[in-house]
Amino acid sequence: MWGLLGLSELHKKRIEVAVNIWGEILNGSFSSREELVSYLEEVYRTNRLEPIRGKTKINIWDKELATLYVVGKYGLALEEELYSFQNLFDIEVKADRTISAVLEGRDPRTTLREHFGSEDEDHVFRVLRLAMTSVVLGFMDEETFIKILAEFEKAFPELRENFASFKRFYIAFRMAEMIASGKIRNRIEKEAYKHAMCVKLNADKSAPSDDFIRDIVVSTFKVPEHRANGVLRMA
């Protein structure tokens, strides 16, 4: 469904770790999702990797299986094998099918109910997390992600505040990437990029704080705090 758009050096280690974990999956090392989640956390900690996240840590290691799924399906072309391990990736398979249906013009609410059996808020954001992870790792273009997000916003108006928070997280994460890669070098560039992203996502009221951006830059991308503060002018 999505072509490889190029893998960021920022996420090279994350992808390498995911590829290695797939070796264990294909060897039949895990009999349950819980075992895989536990192993993923152990390997990430050993490699000083943080999951893709904002402020919340609720079920974050389970949610990070989206990275394994995306790398397996679109990076290693293991689509057929994935269905043999659906017990490990049940949520991601359902989320992926939901994304495909929405991109074909299906109603998100109806499609979510078909695949997940409910319209639960957690399922909505598992779908969006899978799409975001695909963008971050280079397997989906941002315009496609924005289209998916917009369709869910229209279908679930009662989750307006939740979508605003998700947009805030997405913008902060993308800005953190730009700072870590040296593409945002000062406060002027930071403010310009933040404004552009808010316009792009129709998120005028969802601009992330500099503190939020810095937390991701430092914790996820291991940028020294003084360098992050220098770009954000927070020193």
TrEMBL record:
This is DUF2192 domain-containing protein. It comes from Thermofilum adornatum. InterPro entries: DUF2192.
